[in-house]
Design brief:
Length: about 375
């Protein structure tokens, strides 16, 4: 079966959506012929087989290119039976082409792409979801967001993102990694991700870090990530706010801002850290649809502390693979991190369970099978009923 993927979010852009969609494409290509239509990129990835990029940057002309290129591909490739949208944003493009050429329409939902607070976006993109043959949500929470927009029950399936545990097995020793990044003798609390406001990094520094440092004096909060400059929805300059707090509170000895790193360096830091934290805020205009970094930390054999927000409870089994606290409960967040840093046996036991859980439930091979099953059922005579 041939599949046409239409997506704005695709490497070399970096982020959760890009990670998920590119890996789904990689998995589908093991059994299907897949073509991808995506946005313009100044610097393309090394190998781009059957990937068609808009010749111009920007969102305004992308829909026109996607429709033109998609029509040309579908006209010449009758074996393509399904059109897969990488996010809710491209739903109208997927449906227009699916209806014109008699194909099935499937859209991946991530969370923010369902609730984005724009009347125009909700009218033009989200309301079209009800006409899709299948919607795949990345978490139970995202499924609930989709359900609020739908009039047809039974159209949404939940398939979480995956991770490749093998990639996290081999890395330099934690000591050599600490020496490389100037962290010798430090107990590392690690954050990885784009510095969107909802991530709660600024609030964690402002409300929790010094309390933790008083109990664990050699602690260091290591931040890997930068402002979400390529995002269509985030324009805040969180990094400047963090730098101001560091200066005002004299936290230079307790924080390292490492910016964007390559994948190998990020894995090194996962391996070297003591605790991974994702202190996401509960906001009305943004949401953590899943939290892929939580799976990555678990794959590296590290315990995580996160807030019980959005799709995060799908990624963390509370009390077993990590600890969940309520968003805004800074005292609980501080307490759990301090306890884990002090209790090596508990930390190691939870980390071991977390890695085993990831290998059994979230390896990409298992996730690919779920996509293959859902899409295969859709192509049966009763698949869209």
């Amino acid at each position: 079966m041939g599949i046409l993927v239409i997506t704005w979010n695709y490497p070399p852009r970096r982020g959760g959506m890009e990670y998920l969609v590119s890996n789904v494409v990689r998995g589908l290509r093991k059994r299907h012929s897949v073509c991808v239509i995506t946005a313009h990129a100044k610097h393309k990835t090394a190998q781009e087989e059957c990937i068609y990029r808009a010749p111009w940057p920007g969102l305004v002309l992308f829909p026109l290119y996607a429709l033109w290129r998609g029509a040309a591909i579908l006209r010449c490739n009758p074996e393509i039976k399904l059109i897969f949208g990488g996010s809710v944003m491209v739903t109208p493009l997927v449906l227009i082409l699916a209806r014109l050429f008699g194909r099935k329409a499937v859209v991946q939902a991530h969370g923010l792409d369902v609730i984005h607070a724009s009347g125009f976006y909700q009218t033009v993109c989200v309301r079209w979801l009800r006409f899709c043959d299948r919607i795949i949500a990345n978490s139970i929470y995202t499924e609930s967001l989709v359900a609020e927009k739908m009039t047809r029950p039974g159209v949404t399936s939940v398939i979480p993102p995956g991770v490749d545990p093998i990639r996290f097995e081999s890395a330099p020793s934690p000591e050599s990694v600490k020496e490389k990044f100037g962290l010798v003798g430090k107990r590392i609390i690690l954050f990885v991700g784009r510095l969107a406001k909802r991530k709660g990094v600024k609030e964690f520094i402002d409300e929790s870090l010094m309390t933790i440092a008083k109990e664990v004096p050699n602690v260091c909060f290591v931040i890997v990530g930068d402002n979400p400059s390529e995002s269509l929805t985030h324009r805040e300059d969180t990094l400047s706010e963090i730098k101001r707090i560091i200066s005002d509170m004299s936290l230079q000895n307790y924080i390292r801002l490492l910016g964007s790193l390559n994948d190998d360096e990020v894995i090194e830091l996962y391996q070297a850290c003591d605790v991974f934290v994702l202190p996401t805020l509960a906001t009305t205009d943004d949401v953590e649809g899943f939290g892929i970094v939580l799976l990555e930390a678990a794959a590296a054999g590290k315990v995580v502390v996160a807030t019980r927000v959005g799709g995060i409870p799908d990624a963390v089994e509370d009390g077993k693979s990590g600890i969940l606290v309520e968003a805004g409960d800074h005292a609980a967040l501080q307490r759990e991190i301090i306890d884990l840093l002090r209790d090596d046996c508990r930390r190691f036991d939870m980390a071991a369970y977390a890695r085993e859980r990831v290998m059994k439930q979230f390896s990409w091979n298992r996730i690919f099978e779920r996509y293959t099953t859902i899409l295969g059922l859709l192509m049966t005579p009763t698949g869209s009923e």
